[in-house]
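User: Here's a structure from my thesis project, written as structure tokens. My advisor, Dr. K., wants to see whether a designed sequence matches the one we expressed. Can you design one independently, without my sequence as a hint?
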């Protein structure tokens, strides 16, 4: 930590003539995770993301969409040309996608993708989306590396459970870019950023060299740079060793090839360390080296003698940067006492959540009755204000209602539950439930069973109906005698919920986007009604593959106007498609500038389509469109 450290920041800007040289080329393959953990909001966000991706692809390219879980599916047998007919087929399939393919097995679909011959003059760009981890990470990464000469891989980790080793490794070996979508992040902006990178020609033959005085040596802390994208910063850290005069200078040279053109950039810097900078850059450099060594340790696990781990621990302690082998410890300096005793290891079990499903011991028929009750209730539930699992967000206070009903029901059931079979902490939750989530969370072991319980199958000879019971060896609970009580409780819960929803029914307001209850003709549907589509996504879904919009009732509804009003406002000598496309562009710029990262590429395609039409009176169309939509967007802002 006593030697100076250099940080080089690269933020490339490439010539526009080179950037657009291959913009209309490419084979785009999207591999989407459809395992069970992608349920609810994640799969909806994935569908919306695929819509934006498809609408943003350039004319002249090829595409295909794979999805995977325990098995994999693909929309087309091979990649197909990007045209309206194929896009329409793909969007229909995307709308039907659900998180129903089981586990997370990514290796087999990758093998199938790589087995497909590459299309001449169409560089393959692979987009991989997953929210989990796999048991064969190294094998997957090695497969991507093996095929790195024929494609670029852009990977996306969805949620906190996504494997960083898998996401970073695939992007690194595939010459692409990793992205992580966590917390409240929206998936679409990050995915569209990666699509912009994919549309850029590949930067290859990247090298970094150092020119320093003889008495000074350099140790590069960063892994070699394998990719460069316009607008994407890359950092290089290096430690300098040796003495030099204060006036001495160093030079770092970056060389690369872009679209067949060889480029070289030089940067000169003073070897005199800046004053009063602290150790910030040193720690950033140490962090980069630690992450690189951790990756090496994962790749060599079982094949090395612990040398990498020793390096990581030593560097972590010296720099004060945590690693996978070290951790910070809080020290209480007030009393001056040394804490005695061994360190404690505590396992935090992964919760097994099941919405508001009660995990009743000793009688699995209880959960079956819960399923039946909820299925019957679907006709009465307010899907517009429920976010699947997030009952607490409901404006109708659904979460509070169910919590009250749960409390009342549990009081009736407490005498019928088998406490011998339940985990101690879980018993506390059920005895005094503070929330629906707590009452339905049971620690789960690695083999998929609940703690201190076994699963046995009872035959019809031991009880009236065959049930699956979860009880300990000493459990004397007999579920058959309590079936009536359990049935009564669920019946009461159902009646209270039905009464609640019917009391909340009300006529629609003028500006309501969707009905407050499910239509009667859908009351027995097993699939809940989808919430209304975002206005931006609705407008995007109407765009043709060529980039234009059609002047039809669907577009009029998306713009909040009548079809007659749109046609009446159209300037003379202008085709309906040109007029409709200009209106859509004005709406995007006038009302959705906060989401420009999501629609910018498809808007550029629309502007290019208008240019190709040699359309007359474009200025007049922009003026008339602003008046119609109440906007003040300049013609230049539209790319026209």
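Assistant: Designed independently from the structure alone:
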């Amino acid at each position: 930590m006593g030697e100076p450290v250099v940080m080089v920041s690269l933020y490339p800007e490439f010539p526009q003539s080179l950037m657009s040289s291959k913009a209309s080329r490419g084979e785009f393959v999207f591999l989407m995770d459809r395992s069970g953990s992608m349920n609810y909001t994640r799969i909806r966000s994935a569908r919306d993301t695929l819509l934006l991706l498809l609408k943003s692809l350039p004319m002249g390219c090829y595409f295909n969409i794979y999805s995977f879980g325990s098995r994999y599916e693909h929309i087309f047998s091979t990649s197909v040309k990007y045209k309206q007919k194929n896009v329409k087929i793909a969007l229909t399939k995307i709308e039907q996608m659900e998180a129903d393919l089981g586990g997370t097995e990514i290796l087999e679909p990758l093998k199938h993708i790589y087995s497909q011959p590459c299309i001449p003059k169409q560089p393959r760009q692979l987009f991989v989306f997953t929210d989990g981890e796999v048991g064969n990470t190294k094998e997957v990464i090695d497969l991507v590396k093996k095929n790195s000469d024929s494609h670029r891989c852009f990977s996306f980790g969805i949620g906190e459970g996504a494997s960083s080793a898998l996401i970073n490794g695939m992007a690194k070996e595939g010459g692409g870019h990793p992205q992580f979508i966590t917390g409240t992040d929206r998936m679409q902006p990050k995915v569209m950023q990666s699509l912009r990178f994919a549309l850029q020609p590949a930067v290859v033959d990247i090298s970094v060299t150092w020119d320093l005085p003889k008495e000074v040596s350099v140790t590069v802390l960063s892994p070699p740079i394998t990719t460069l994208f316009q607008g994407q910063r890359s950092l290089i850290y290096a430690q300098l060793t040796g003495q030099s005069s204060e006036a001495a200078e160093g030079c770092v040279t970056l060389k690369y090839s872009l679209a067949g053109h060889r480029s070289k950039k030089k940067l000169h810097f003073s070897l005199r360390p800046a004053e009063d900078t602290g150790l910030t850059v040193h720690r950033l450099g140490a962090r980069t080296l630690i992450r690189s060594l951790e990756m090496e340790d994962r790749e060599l696990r079982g094949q090395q003698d612990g040398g990498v781990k020793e390096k990581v621990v030593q560097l972590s302690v010296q720099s004060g940067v945590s690693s996978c082998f070290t951790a910070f410890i809080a020290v209480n300096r007030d009393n001056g006492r040394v804490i005695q005793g061994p360190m404690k290891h505590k396992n935090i079990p992964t919760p097994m959540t099941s919405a508001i499903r009660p995990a009743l011991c000793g009688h699995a028929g209880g959960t079956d009755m819960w399923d039946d009750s909820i299925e019957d209730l679907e006709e009465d539930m307010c899907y517009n204000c429920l976010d699947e699992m997030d009952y607490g967000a409901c404006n109708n206070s659904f979460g509070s209602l169910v919590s009250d009903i749960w409390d009342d029901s549990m009081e009736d059931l407490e005498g019928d539950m088998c406490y011998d079979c339940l985990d101690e902490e879980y018993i506390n939750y059920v005895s005094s439930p503070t929330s629906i989530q707590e009452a339905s969370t049971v620690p789960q072991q690695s083999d998929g069973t609940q703690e201190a319980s076994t699963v046995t199958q009872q035959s019809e000879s031991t009880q009236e109906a065959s049930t699956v019971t979860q009880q300990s060896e000493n459990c004397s609970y007999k579920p058959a005698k309590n079936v009536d009580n359990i049935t009564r409780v669920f019946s009461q819960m159902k009646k209270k919920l039905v009464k609640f929803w019917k009391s909340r029914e009300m006529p629609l307001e003028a500006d309501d986007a969707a009905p407050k209850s499910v239509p009667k003709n859908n009351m027995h549907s097993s699939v809940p009604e989808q919430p209304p589509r975002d206005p931006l996504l609705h407008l995007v879904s109407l765009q043709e593959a060529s980039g234009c919009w059609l002047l039809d009732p669907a577009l009029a509804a998306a713009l909040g106007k009548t079809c007659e009003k749109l046609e009446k406002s159209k300037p003379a000598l202008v085709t309906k498609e040109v007029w409709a496309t200009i209106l859509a562009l004005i709406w995007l710029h006038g009302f959705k500038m906060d989401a420009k990262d999501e629609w910018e590429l498809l808007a550029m395609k629309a502007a290019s389509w208008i240019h190709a039409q040699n359309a007359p009176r474009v200025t007049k169309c922009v003026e008339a469109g602003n008046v119609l939509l109440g906007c003040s967007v300049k013609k230049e802002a539209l790319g026209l």
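When you compare it with your expressed construct, this may help: The first helix runs from residue 16 to 19.
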